Amino acid sequence: MQSPQLVHLIKLLSRLPGLGPRSGRRAALHLIKNKEQALSPLLSALTQAAESIVTCNQCKNLDTISPCHICSSPQRDQDTLCIVEDVSDLWALERSASFKGQYHVLGGTLSAIGGVGPEELGIGTLIARVLMLSNLREIVIALSATVEGQTTAHYVHRALQEACPHLAFSALAHGIPLGGELDYLDDGTLTTALMARRAL
Amino acid sequence: MQSPQLVHLIKLLSRLPGLGPRSGRRAALHLIKNKEQALSPLLSALTQAAESIVTCNQCKNLDTISPCHICSSPQRDQDTLCIVEDVSDLWALERSASFKGQYHVLGGTLSAIGGVGPEELGIGTLIARVLMLSNLREIVIALSATVEGQTTAHYVHRALQEACPHLAFSALAHGIPLGGELDYLDDGTLTTALMARRAL
User: Is the pTM of this model over 0.90?
Assistant: First the structure.
């Protein structure tokens, strides 16, 4: 007995990551009950985002301009490039405010099952970009510590090292996360943290 | 370094019930990465909903027409009226397909702290509507089994019984939910289920 417009809206909201049928219904109800405070602002924010957000033609970040604010900023270091899997990883690193160099977003990981090869990830474009960056000294490969992430990291490392043997390569350190309790950590993390122990 | 449009969109998405800052970011990324498949359909669904969804002037359900499809359907029983707290409760009962009568949505529960009194819940309008329904035989008070819900149910029952003493009143049965394991149920539910035990 629900109107088709409502059913359609609930279906679309339920498809958002993190939402399901129940939370989709709650979100739809919330939006419709608060047309002025919630629905209208979201509508205009979505319209603006749809119109203005583009993919940066250099690093594949999402921004309103291309090249993006990071690529075009004179304050960013030109000698380091950080390779990440996804825009959300770039955002996470930016939130930590601990990296001041350039980024490159792969947009995924290599996956034989998913049909994602080096061409889909634009490894050729990445190498071409790296060759153009004349001040580059170091490439930080900051991919996830998953099997797919590490396989991709290995492939990217090998391909870039072949093309630019003069560059330094690094990866994020493995170890115990801050606040992590040993009892709750998996054996792999503990082994890695123990092997990479630092002198005090 | 994120564009203000993105920050604004993430903020609005994070405010949806069931979403937080992290899932808001994920939802925003998902929408922007899938402009054709996700953002545009959601945009038009929201626009349509904003334009077409209205509150039914009889039962306060949300629909594209007022009186809503339930109030105006000749197939629905005219002799029972079910009083619910929220539109989501009406939807839940409709999904169960076990009630074929009329509805009335209170839109909340009585709350001294929240400043919600009988006027805010439209108890007067409800009584006026009940007096107009000439075929009405029974009123099902289907409010939540919470303290607020049961307080409101008690008040609504008393007010309606005073105005229409000839009507039958009922409430949803309390007991063990289907699939419920005794060990996981609270003492209150178990006590109620035991006291209301049925002969076999």
Answer: no
